[in-house]
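Q: Start with the shorter request: fold the first protein.
A: Done. Sequence, then structure:
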Amino acid sequence: MLAGTKTRTVVAVLVVVALSPAPLWPQGQAFSSTAPLSRDQALQVFEQFKALSGRWRGESTKGWEGDSTYRVLARDSVVMSTSEFDDAGPGRGMVTMTHMDGDRLVLTHYCEARNQPRLVATALEDGGRTVVFTFLDGTNLPSRESGHMDKAVFHFEGPNQLRSRWTWYQKGEETWFEDIVYTRVREQPEP
């Protein structure tokens, strides 16, 4: 009889947690000290991300090269970027999802560090060609001080070239960054 009660209690707790609108990790605590872009600016940048749809070749200042693919999914509500590195084995690579969240543009980076920081677009520069995303919250991060990608800057150089800079944050410091230059891969016409 006691075992059945424990099972029902565990199930009830799991249901309450699953249906709870409040996240268990302090996701509701925005760590970004900068306000997000206006809705109009966020939508403008989101359209730029949608225009990246296709295959890209990336070269990093950390020495790696690889392929990235941008896809617009879920009835135009999200842009998924997948990255695969030339020297990586199976199961390696990363995914970044960019989408509107109400009036703000957010990015979730599924990192090889096995965490998922969420960043929010907070600055627009260079006549709208450069957007800055700063850390909002994340999953699989025991604390803000745990190592994670903390900032991403995207510079839209034109329809066939993109630059990004990713910044790593750990123990209160931005400890390194890498710049990546992406060039669109031209699709070969089928014979």
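Q: Next, the second protein, separately.
A: Sequence, then structure:
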Amino acid sequence: MDQLRAGVSSREVARVLPLGREGLLGRIREDLERIARGEDPKPGYRILLADYGQGKTHTLQAAWSLAEDLGFVVSHLTVSREATLDRPDRLYRKLLQDTYVPGHHEPGIAPLLDALSGRPEEAQRLLRFVEKELHPKLSLVLEARLEDEDGDTDILDQDLSGFFPPVADIRRAYRERHGQAPKVDRFRLVDHSFDYFRLLDRLAVSAGYAGWVVLIDEFEIVGRFGRRGRALSYDFFRRLALDRELPHTLTLWAVAASFKTDTIEGKGEAERLPEWLRERGQNDLAQRIRRPLSILSGEAALPPLREEDLRRAFSTIREAHGTAYGWEPPAEDLYDQVRRHIPERDRKIRHLVRAAVQVLDLQLSYGQVEDLFVEEVEEPPQTLSDDDEPPEGEGVSRAWPDD
């Protein structure tokens, strides 16, 4: 109840209060079950496009609970100036800081590695995949980590967590275990960091879990980046969601409906951005972002929640409040009570839910409900310049380093 009162979305609340998105969650469940059976979920991603306050984040949290119950490793990221999509190496590190293995309360992939050490056949199969498909550096890291989990694995764990120590340190750790270490090709973040996503996709399954779910919230923040940052973000969306390089992964993307009007349509993104890239000789990138832009342009918004869905959800809130505080709330329909105190123009679900809890709190404490005034003051978004690079110090969309 405290989380509902504060308007904070959480897995615990979303598990029992899906807020009218049962149909969508049912389709997500079907996707997850296909992945768990080793089938292609087709398409392997879902976009949750809706207005602000219509429960996108809440639905992501409900999907998190669902995925956890089905045995999936879950990662979550909220896009921001500090967590952008144009640098997969930094994004991987951010994701690992909010990655949870079922049955474990601390973030990180250590439980996957521990589980894999007890599955020698799966470990060998994974090592063969890494040796064949990924950069040789990852083979050194994984082999050394699996063979000596009781020893000093700090350097190896740092690498697998996205901090990427120098290759010389990795070879030294490998040499301590094997007497010598093979030379490896140069590791470049710009070229090879996505290999870590591919490794985690396979690692989850090899360790005995159903797969991997990646939740990306507030994708609309991409619209505030410079043109190069936006292009690289769309390209990352392509790799993570469309190219099926991660066959055991489902990605869910929460996007504000305003992204289509403000960015896709307002900036003429589908035509102008590829043209801008071609003018700078980046023809390959211009071609790669065409499909993700087409998908984002054509995505339909989630239908508004129906009144009957809200009435059912508010009935659940009423029952939960009575159970939590040991009383019997009035029999009058809670949704009707809230609507008497909240302006009809206010359709934000979190405002209505918070008001519902306030109504119940007042009834419990005073036996009646005074007028509620719910106001929201929103700061205007600070949109970055549409230049190639953002202003100095912003930390968004900077050029890639050499390695």
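Q: Describe the second briefly.
A: The longest helix spans residues 307-325. DSSP finds 20 helices and five strands in the chain.
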